[in-house]
Amino acid sequence: MELSSILKPECTTCATPGSKKKVLELISDIAAAQYPELSGQDIFESLLAREKMGSTGIGNGIAIPHGRLKSITQPIAVLIKCEVPIAFDAIDKQPVDILFALLVPAEQCEHHLPTLSLMAEKLNDKAILKQLRKTQDDTELYKVITQ
């Protein structure tokens, strides 16, 4: 799967959200702005429900928050690079600065596992991660993740 098929340039941003709650709200706002048929509140609640099951912070400064939505038919992704790392309850107890969020159709939740796996593999590539952390703007961030 090409990442560009689920990640729009407008859903890729460098930001300073400040907290786990704020970054989940930011993900929700970005997705809702690009997909007007979606409710930012529904997105936020979906992401929050998954986080309550256990943190999606996978370590090394990376988190892959994800949620299920009844109102979509195709996966939607949001990529955020935090200018200042935030506490995210990651498995290694380290703050997070790279977040790849994935929203999937509720009835197709098993289908997103390969996408999550691909993204985790990509973000665990030290060269890609280093490039992501060096990016200075949204366009550059999008180019690095989709190359």
From TrEMBL:
NCBIfam families reported for this sequence: nitro_reg_IIA
Pfam families hit by this protein: PTS_EIIA_2 (PF00359)
Protein name: PTS IIA-like nitrogen regulatory protein PtsN
Organism placement in taxonomy: Bacteria, Pseudomonadati, Pseudomonadota, Gammaproteobacteria, Alteromonadales
Domain PTS EIIA type-2: 1-147
Signal sequence segment: none
InterPro entries, A to Z: PTrfase/Anion_transptr (IPR016152), PTS_EIIA_type-2_dom (IPR002178), PTS_Nitro_regul (IPR006320), PTS_SugarTrans_NitroReg (IPR051541)
PROSITE patterns referenced in this protein's UniProt entry, alphabetically: PTS_EIIA_TYPE_2, PTS_EIIA_TYPE_2_HIS
